[in-house]
Amino acid sequence: MRFKRFTVFAIGAGALTLTACKDSPKERLEGRWVGEAVENFRPEQTAQAAGWAKGTSFEFKGSRVTVSIPAESARSGTYKVTARSERELQVTFLRAHGAKDVVDVQFEDDDRLRWKLGDGRSVLMRKVP
User: Fold this and answer.
1) Are strands 121-128 and 112-118 parallel, antiparallel or unpaired?
2) Which of 28, 47, 101, 103 is the right S-S partner for 93, CB 3.0 to 4.6 Å?
3) CA distance 94 to 129
4) What pLDDT score was predicted for residue 95?
5) Residue 11, CB half-sphere, CA atoms under 13 Å: how many?
6) What is the three-class DSSP state of 35?
7) Where are the domains of the chain?
């Protein structure tokens, strides 16, 4: 009886793991992400940084990405994902002329992520339909 319960538990846990891991990091990124808020900026910088963040977006479609930053032309190119853990990724944006931009992001849940800017600062982004 004990073995039977363990087997049922193991099968259930395995099914849950497979369900939770069915999406690759690229599949989880797919879609449009927009800036929503900022964290850990100095008080005198917070309002301006929040405005900048709200005008920022990433749009992932297949192997292409478009990055829109306020006061700059949108940039498009390809990208590569390196998973650091189930929630944390390093994304390398490959520009058309060969330059690379590397960013660290962390999934908060399926439709929210944290773009880590360094020095403890981050931009919170949400996925939009």
Assistant:
1) antiparallel
2) 101
3) 25
4) 85
5) 6
6) strand
7) 24-128
Class of domain 24-128: mainly beta
The 10s digit of each residue's pLDDT in 93-116 is 998 888 899 999 999 999 999 999
Give CA separation, 39 vs 42, 43, 56, 76, in Å.
Answer: 9, 10, 15, 26
**Is the pLDDT assigned to residue 17 strictly greater than 60?**
no
d(CA 15, CA 27) in angstroms, rounded, equals: 20
SS3 content of the chain, % helix, strand, coil (to 5): 30, 45, 25
Q: Is the pLDDT of residue 5 over 80?
A: no
Concatenated DSSP letters for 44-106?
Answer: HHHHHHHHHHHT-EEEEETTEEEEE-TTS--EEEEEEEEESSSSEEEEEEEETTS-EEEEEEE
- pLDDT for the residue 22: 54
Residue-level pLDDT at 112: 98
pTM here is 0.79
